[in-house]
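Re: export button greyed out
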Amino acid sequence: MNMDASATLLSSGSGGRGLHRFANPGRFLRLSGKVLPWLAAFALVLTLIGLGWGLFFAPADWQQGDAVRIMYIHVPAAWLASSGYLGLAICSVLSLVWRHPLADLAAMEIGPVGAGATFLCLATGSLWGKPMWGAWWVWDARLTSVLVLFFLYLGHIALVRAFDSPERGARAGAILALVGVVNLPIIKFSVDWWNTLHQPASISFTGSPTMYVGMLWPLLFSALGMTFGFAAIVVARTRAGVMERRIRGLLLARAQQEAGARLEAAAS
Amino acid sequence: MTHLTYISAAYGLAVVVAGWFAVDAWLRMGRARKRLAAIDPRARR
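Workaround output, generated via the alternate export path:
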């Protein structure tokens, strides 16, 4: 579907009235162009503070020793893997229900970045597991459900690019993304529902953290910085996607115009 | 520092993964901007 036509559809539908303002690709490019440098700057500064603090100044754990410093990457990567998928699912709803033209593009661009975060979570978990558990990998409920999340991301990446028509690819990908949402509570509660080797959550919304505050602060800085970094990369990729879609549209229109002119010349 | 090899590998991997995505996004955006400016007169403004 043409993006301008989609924007008109959104503005006329009652459900998407609040969203239509952001359906305009030109407006998105202008707005994101202003926001992106700030996002990138915050991401860089906060991540450097968090990781530098965690690596050089935070105390070592009495049981894990310095291997606990891997947590400053592993935990934010795990949070981003799950929240990135939630973002993918929200974009899929926006795409399926309101046909928001930027939502399917954003979903397409979140996929690879989310897969990268999930890969980083699994790889750093392995690097922590080998010295602590004596194994690179165990078929534990938490680890297995995160591996399933990684495969869901890969499936989404492949599916949205598997069709000649981008709209059909986006539709199929959105359905897969929504089906895969069932894995998010499984990941979250796997450490409570099953007897796992992976430790339970140290930070929750309802209770006070069970972590030493000298370790908590660098973790929060690192998590916030990496979240800004994730957002900045997704915004930059979506900007590129919007421009590439406009290029394809212009080239197609030009080719149709030239073909029409040739047909007219041949007829006369 | 204990477990230095594992810690270095984890931090190195984070830099490589994040750096690769950031540079790829930056280059892709630059390429798209140049190409759009070349074919769309409105994009030059």
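DSSP finds eight helices and no strands in chain A. The button fix ships in the next patch.
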